[in-house]
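Problem: given the chain below (140 residues), write out its structure.
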Amino acid sequence: MKLLFRIAFALAASFPLTAMAEDAKPALGLELNSIETLDGSCRLTFVLQNSLAEDIDALVAETVLFSEAGQVVLLTLFDFGALPVGKPRVRQFQVPSRPCDGLGQVLVNGVDTCEIAGAADERCQSALSLSSRVRIDMAG
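Solution.
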């Protein structure tokens, strides 16, 4: 009886880990890692992590910068380039004539271009996972 109890307990204890592993979906991590004002322009530094099953040949995101008051400051395309599976990549973008002070949010309005295996692909949009290490929020 004790052996049956131990086996049942071991199975029950392992179930949540198995269920979590099956529920984990591949992600495309996009983190706003740092901001810096240089010569009156804001430099945004992003860290990207492709956890999809395949390399991303090209990723371009329609991005909107908002002021702390919620006003649109800039609507632009950020070309993140190629993203190999499992290898973090860092990309920087300069916003000319706009210091970082006063920026309140970066909105990824949508994925403009996602190419996997040489063809357009919808997985980038659905796998996008946004985060920020700075005072500016990321949304999407």
